[in-house]
Amino acid sequence: MAPGGVAHGTRRIPTSRIGGFVALTKPRIIELLLITTVPTMVMAQGGWPRTSLVLITLLGGTLAAGGANAINMVVDRDIDKLMPRTQGRPLVTGLLGPREAMVFAIALEVLAFAVLWAWANLLSAILALSATLFYVFVYTLWLKRTSTQNIVIGGAAGAVPVLVGWAAVQNNVAWAPVVLFVVMFLWTPPHFWALAIRYADDYRAADVPMLPAVASLQVTVRKMVLYTSLMVVSTLVMWPVGHLGLIYGIPAIALGALFLWGTIDLGTNPTAPRAMRVFGYSITYVTLLFAALTVDVLVRRPG
Q1: Sequence-distant (≥ 6) Cβ neighbours of residue 142 within 8 angstroms
Q2: φ and ψ of 108, to 5 deg
Q3: Distance, CA of 81 to CA of 87 (rounded, Å)
Q4: How many CA atoms lie within 13 A of 73 on its CB side?
Q5: Residue 55, exposed/middle/buried by CB under 10 A (0-12, 13-18, 19+)?
Q6: pLDDT tens digit sequence for 66-95
Q7: CA distances from 299 to 226, 235, 288 (A)
Q8: Which residue from 175, 151, 136 is spatially nearest to 227, judged by alpha carbons?
Q9: Residue 85 and residue 198: Cα distance in Å, rounded?
Q10: 239 Cβ partners below 8 Å, 6+ apart?
Q11: Which residue spans traverse the membrane (predicted)?
Q12: Element (H, E) at 91
């Protein structure tokens, strides 16, 4: 399963080594990734999948995402110490060392691949590993520090869980999960840029070219509106492609309209609190959208 490029707000600083290893995995990000996995598995099955397969896929996805996030922390420890939001991370405080963190991360990735290959299928394991490699090499090592397109392109890694979930059930990749991949790919920039508006000074201090740190708020919001609009369109494309009904379609329209209104309103009232409200709603949005998809499938096509 793919890691996300998402970074959340300040969290409790770990004080024990166990807490430090848990913090390396960025568990709050993993929660968001898993929200998209189970609904996609339900769609792939046309009902509720085998519960053991769901648990295996979630376990493999959690391990893969956790390992990728840990590698990200190892690579970014130099800039993490420059940003107040990330100065409590275990590699910055010295709670853990980079070598042991990397060994931990690689072990998680190996275990993730083995779990998915042994108890799901090889395709889901390969997709999860490819997402990790993309996140580490394309986003973390290349784009994050060099391009304002970092989260746009790198965010593709965070859209892969839908492909992993579908592949775990069907052992293939079809149009429905591809459209869901596009939805999550387009969702990532407005979601992340809303948070980055709040922490733009942090990114400037670390010389990381996140869009809100190097462009005006007007330019940032304009691009947020563009990506949000395209995302809403893609959720509507999902309606016929996924053979879904009104239980999905009506929430998709209503939730998308609220998301779009929120980004437009941010442009007319450009403040950090409003940006954080858009960020918070973006999480609610994806949660409710995938919940509606799940209910639609289960009600109309019970397994």
Answers
A1: none
A2: -65, -40
A3: 5
A4: 35
A5: exposed
A6: 999 999 999 999 999 999 999 999 999 999
A7: 33, 19, 16
A8: 151
A9: 11
A10: 248, 249, 252
A11: 29-48, 54-75, 101-119, 125-143, 150-169, 175-196, 224-241, 247-266, 278-299
A12: helix 90-93
* Average pLDDT in the chain: 93
- Asked if residue 15 lies in contact with residue 271, where contact means CB atoms within 8 angstroms, the answer is no
Task: Please report the pLDDT score of residue 5 as a whole number.
Answer: 43
- The whole-number pLDDT of residue 11 equals 59
- pLDDT tens string 24-67: 999 988 888 789 999 999 999 999 999 999 999 999 999 999 99
Q: How far apart are CA 239 and CA 233, in angstroms?
A: 10
Determine the 3-state secondary structure of 149 from DSSP. coil
**What's the pTM?**
0.94
Single-letter amino acid code for the residue at 8: H
Cα 91 to chain centroid distance, Å, stands at 22
- Token look-up 């995402």 returns 65
Residues, the chain:
303
